[in-house]
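Working notes for the structural subgroup meeting. M.R. asked for a predicted model of this chain before we commit to crystallization trials. I am recording the input and output together here so anyone reviewing the notebook later can reproduce the run.

Input as submitted:
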Amino acid sequence: MERIEGFLIIDKPQGITSADVVRVVKKALKVKKVGYIGTLDPIATGVLPVGIGRATKVFPFLEKMDKVYEATMTLGSATDTQDSTGAVTSQADPSGITDEMVKEAMAGFTGEIQQIPPMYSAKKIDGERLYDLARQGITVERKPVTAHIKELSFISKEGNVVRFTAKVSTGSYIRTLCNDIGEKLGVYAHLSGLIRAATGHFTLENSIPLDELKEGGFEKAQERILSLSDGLSNLSKAVVIAHAVDRLRNGMPVSVSEVATYEDAPGTGYVRIVNKTGELMAIGMKTGIPMAGFPFTTIQPKKVLL
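Returned structure, recorded in token form:
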């Protein structure tokens, strides 16, 4: 069978873990090296970017991407997991809560906020994941972490069920956001549904349902696979001449004279270095002063894939 590597945007179904997705991909494609970017809880569905083969080596350049969610929040009760899978810990009557009250409460959670990581989360404290401790009935003190809620938009409220969208930084907890909004309203709340619509440039519109991959296997994956370079479209792109490839292989920097074309991606100092056929050679960092129309003097390789 022909070798396959690159990125697949999986639409994860509800009820399975992100690790379960990896197992399905490995079996469907008969590959050994598979990883994912950004854990999705079993309750959540939607975008789970999966890297195959050498794609797993470039995950560090994709870890800080913003995420976009569509969430469903149920007012009137809090749970020990902060979502609908947990046991109810507190209740209150939410019948007096209006749309405007919800919008006003949500407005107080935009920008940089402090969140206490939930016990049922993958965060590690002293080398142990919180959810492992929680399953043993152990609760430990957690220090607040900074989350950046970049956008928070009310969609609708039907009865005690609120729908909203959120664009957040890595490390933000939508479950905790729902819990904290409920506390601010004075009626408690928990997360009852979650769809991840995007992880950076990986979007739900370009995803493949996991069941389709299971049924279609290698052929279906070939239709939807993103190359190593396309999977890193959040980075700038430098197409280099053949001579630069040998220099990269030896870990030497690429000079502006060896760059055939360049596309800048704002907000990042990293550059994907490709040959003229579009194959990813390396990822580098722009260094030096602007020269010859380029915003750098050289590109210093940080990860060589040759």
